[in-house]
Amino acid sequence: MWRKLFSRLPNRPFSSSSSNPEISTLYSFLQPSIFALKRDPPLSSQPSTKLPAQPPKTLNPDDITSLETTLHKSLLTNNTDEAWKSFKALTSGSAFPSKSLTNSLITHLSSLNEVHNLKRAFASVVYLIEKNPELLGLETVESLLNSFKCAKTAAPAFALVRCMFKNRFFVPFSVWGNVLVEISRKHGNFAAFLRVLEENCRIALDEKLAFMKPDLAACNAALEGCCRQLESVSGSEKVVETMSVLGVRPDETSFGHLAYLYALKGLEKKISELESLMVGFGVSNKRMFLSNLISGYVKSGNLDSVSATILRGLGEGDGESLHLGEETYCEVVKGFLQNGEIKALATLIIEAQKLETSTVIVDKSVGFGIISACVNNGLSDKAHTILDEMNTRESFLGLGVYLPILKAYCKEHRTAEATQLVMDIRNSGLELDVGTYDALIESSMSSQDFQSALTLFRDMREARVSDLKGSYLTIMTGLMENHRPELMAAFLDEVVEDPRVEVRTHDWNSIIHAFCKAGRLEDARRTFRRMTFLQFKPNEQTYLSLISGYVSAEKYFNVLMLWNEVKRNVSIDGEKGIKFDHNLVDAFLYALVKGGFFDAVMQVVEKSQEMKIFVDKWRYKHAFMETHKKLKVAKLRKRNFRKMEALIAFKNWAGLSA
């Protein structure tokens, strides 16, 4: 069927031109030439292979051995010029180095990534193909062709393959075919590749050489060149005919290239024939076929067919996703917008939504693909215009048309607009997933748009989103890093009774610490009271933050009040009460010494001794001397006997007694 479909076509060459422009490029590569070429005679399609040499002389076995030894040593020492000189001397005397030395020399010359030595390698290979092809290894030929690819020079590669054909030096297609495909793609030389491929296929059939048959990838590359670059219907169908003769079975890529060309040329009948052939060959995946059809229609400006193809694909798939790629949607958007067809794009989305089932993944919907393409190409304003056009028609807007714009807002930190769009989405009855909320809240926090983040979190709660932990932590962390404890306190108060949010003592501590650090001690104390009222258990970190804040403000009496509260609930491990560790002992001792509450100081000392907590007395000696240096025991005796006793006890403990 594959062959019969196109066998009616006349047998034409792949290229419409009989000239070979790569020949002049080849000779440009070879100048200044290492061949004995004369500039006056007309150029032929095959390069001369005479190596420059002195007049021929007969070499005796000793001479040959000596030259081979020199050649070998030169290769080992990377003395390229000397190696080349030895090779020329051997070939001038009608002798050849051993096969291993010959291939080593050519591989060495090919590997140097330098044009002059590439010329030497090319000359050597062509000379050997004509004079003694048995010496050439396939790996050597492949290495040279790869060097041409790396050097970004195409003409010598094609000339070398034609030379092999001319001299009946037949090597497997896998040795040279894929390299020429890559070279053709890079240089746009598909016309040259098609001529070489045609000659290769003729030889493979005439000589019955299966190893010279091109594989499917090469045939598809030829189709790609005919369909995409040359835009030649006759050329592409000649490749199809060749594939049929060689027994190369087409795949979805083959049909895709042809679909592009036929759509470009408006050959609807041939497109229908292609679809029938796909069924016959068992090609069930039509994604590539549809993508190429769409690309061809876009390039030809046939936008009606673009829309019809997308909608037909949805209909044939029972409303399931087309799985078109981002590149295809970008082509569609550019094609429509260049022709000012915003209304047509809106219509396409509306009609696609009618066909898409409720099970279609949001980011696989047609609406998502089109709006994403607008956004990704910096056309967010056009995306908005499409949405406005759809709203004007009072049509239902699926979540897919909103998400790309929301993502763009996140990326551009346009968080206020994103929040408003979320409200619109919710009002339309659509639900956002937790990932979208998390991304929007994170973007809002990084932009310091705290009100938008808090509004979005409220919306998450109202939407009954089950997982609030991620966004809760994002907000709390962001507010703490930006020193906004008042917002933290208000936020925590708002969500503390929501079972989906795990509020812990640590969260309250963060707020208290932030207030204390900012010197807002009354707010810190108010938060502390709220924390205990809601039955959150303060821990050592809670008290450390409060003590630090009170010491900074020299409010030592407040520390004394804290101690009176703490001393009733201390434990060494924190399991049955507040963990009384070295840090907490140190903080209380320092603050109470500074405040002159020596009775409480000795209570702390007694508790630390009871719990075997080590205390460094030097720090408190220094604090006493700094604050109470002039305090006399005699004066205290007259005023307050109990304080006097506490002071004496402290001085004795600290080693301050005379």
Automatic annotation (TrEMBL):
<dbReference type="Pfam" id="PF25245">
    <property type="entry name" value="TPR_At1g68980"/>
</dbReference>
<dbReference type="InterPro" id="IPR011990">
    <property type="entry name" value="TPR-like_helical_dom_sf"/>
</dbReference>
<keyword id="KW-0677">Repeat</keyword>
<dbReference type="Pfam" id="PF01535">
    <property type="entry name" value="PPR"/>
</dbReference>
<dbReference type="Pfam" id="PF13041">
    <property type="entry name" value="PPR_2"/>
</dbReference>
<feature type="domain" description="At1g68980-like TPR repeats">
    <location>
        <begin position="57"/>
        <end position="213"/>
    </location>
</feature>
<feature type="repeat" description="PPR">
    <location>
        <begin position="433"/>
        <end position="467"/>
    </location>
</feature>
<protein>
    <submittedName>
        <fullName>Pentatricopeptide repeat</fullName>
    </submittedName>
</protein>
<feature type="repeat" description="PPR">
    <location>
        <begin position="504"/>
        <end position="538"/>
    </location>
</feature>
<dbReference type="Pfam" id="PF13812">
    <property type="entry name" value="PPR_3"/>
</dbReference>
<dbReference type="InterPro" id="IPR057440">
    <property type="entry name" value="At1g68980-like_TPR"/>
</dbReference>
<dbReference type="InterPro" id="IPR002885">
    <property type="entry name" value="PPR_rpt"/>
</dbReference>
<feature type="region of interest" description="Disordered">
    <location>
        <begin position="41"/>
        <end position="60"/>
    </location>
</feature>
<comment type="similarity">
    <text>Belongs to the PPR family. P subfamily.</text>
</comment>
